[in-house]
Amino acid sequence: MTKFRIEKNRLIRYLYFILGIVSVIMGIIGIFVPVWPTTVFLLIATWFFIRSSEKYYYKLVRNKYFGKLIRNYREFKGIESKTRIKTLVFLWTTLLISMYFINKLWVIILLICVGIGVTWHLFALRTITDEELKELNDDNYISQQN
Fold first, then answer.
1. Regarding beta strands 126-127 and 78-79, do their DSSP bridges make them parallel or antiparallel, or are they unpaired?
2. Could you give phi then psi for residue 126, rounded to 5 degrees?
3. How many CA atoms lie within 13 Å of 17's alpha carbon, on the beta-carbon side?
4. How far apart are the C-alpha atoms of 116 and 119, rounded to whole Å?
5. Taking the CB of residue 46, how many other CB atoms lie within 10 A of it?
6. What is d(CA 34, CA 29) in angstroms, rounded to the nearest whole number?
7. Do residues 30 and 37 make contact, with C-beta atoms less than 8 angstroms apart?
8. What pLDDT tens digit does each residue of the chain (146 aa) get?
9. pTM above the 0.85 mark?
């Protein structure tokens, strides 16, 4: 169950809200930039919204695109198998395209290292079971937890 700790100080609450919006924007950028994290920024945004705005917290965790990702990571510290595969295909495709157009060995080595690191992290996350997915996709579960 999420416990909201809305900041009493109006200035700090607005600061948290702005940082939450910025974090969401950074997370969206991470969808398109291979070495830029998405989930981390979305989790940071939820932290800021828990302290500034219940409305925007609920919008984020119930979001069609981000909600399931956030809930999967928060609740189970895991990832769906199909999400892992899609992420790896997109990551390595964009990295290979980047390597093709860049003729500097040190950049290619850096991109390979980033790719290996992200791949390792994705495989280190546990795979969420079908039962857990059904539970997370249940609207009653979202209401109870939030």
1. parallel
2. -75, 155
3. 14
4. 5
5. 22
6. 9
7. yes
8. 567 788 889 999 999 999 999 999 999 998 887 678 788 899 899 999 999 999 999 999 898 888 888 887 877 778 888 888 988 998 899 889 889 998 899 999 999 998 999 899 889 888 888 787 777 666 554 544 54
9. no
